[in-house]
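#struct-help
A.M.: can someone run this one for me? Single chain, 264 residues.
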Amino acid sequence: MGKIISCNNQKGGSGKTATSINIAKGLADDGFKVLLVDLDLQGNTSSKFIEEYETSNGIVEAIRNDSSIEDVIYKTDVDNLFIIPSKLEWLDCLEEMARQDFIEEFNEIENKSTKTLYNLLKPIKNDFDVIILDNNPSYKTILKNCVYAADLIIVPVNIDRNAIKGVDYTIRYITKVINEADENIKCNFKILVTKTTRTKVSKEIVQIIRETFGSSVFDTTIANQIAPAEKQTFYDDYFMIDNQKTKVGKDYRNLVDEIRKELL
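D.P.: on it. Structure tokens below:
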């Protein structure tokens, strides 16, 4: 049975896209059939794999029922890796889902909007070993959807003064959705500390996060290395996980190995 992994943090700049891309690449290289779903209106994940992603049918058309989910899945140049692209119009979909969520909650009726992603991915879930969702940092409605749809939510958190606040809010909201659901939701979550350095402050923050969230934190942390990160952004055929000569490359490889033990 296929598994769904979602990368979520309500705070921007936490490393959701880099995490999603490198996990997807690592699992695909290990022989897993992987689908990467871009749920970020910026389309950074989409642009890495599809040159004309803004004019391609993708998650927007699938949500609107203008295309079937099967028809918006594209093969990438990476063996075993497929993608559903996003674009700016995804913002309109998010706003409509948020309005519907509010109306259903206000009128205390069945909240169908929270299962939009679950219902969309259900027909194809078992066609893949792993489906990875790369998310927009805002919109609580899409986080709700991910809680209902995913088997594992990865919460990337980067090292800065507001790190604890961002991850704490996201975890509290995930827990709230699970506790208030009318059904048994089997969604786990793990915190991934990203952009670590060798400084004393960085080490102290990692320690605080581990003490605060305990076993909910991955053993692996992801190093902050500017050159590999920039190279991944500008070169479509470059992935940080592929460069095992770098600390960040080794970190992502360790993360994939840890995820396999955790979920697969």
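A.M.: thanks! The radius of gyration is 18 Å.
D.P.: also worth noting: Residues 163-180 form the longest helix (18 residues).
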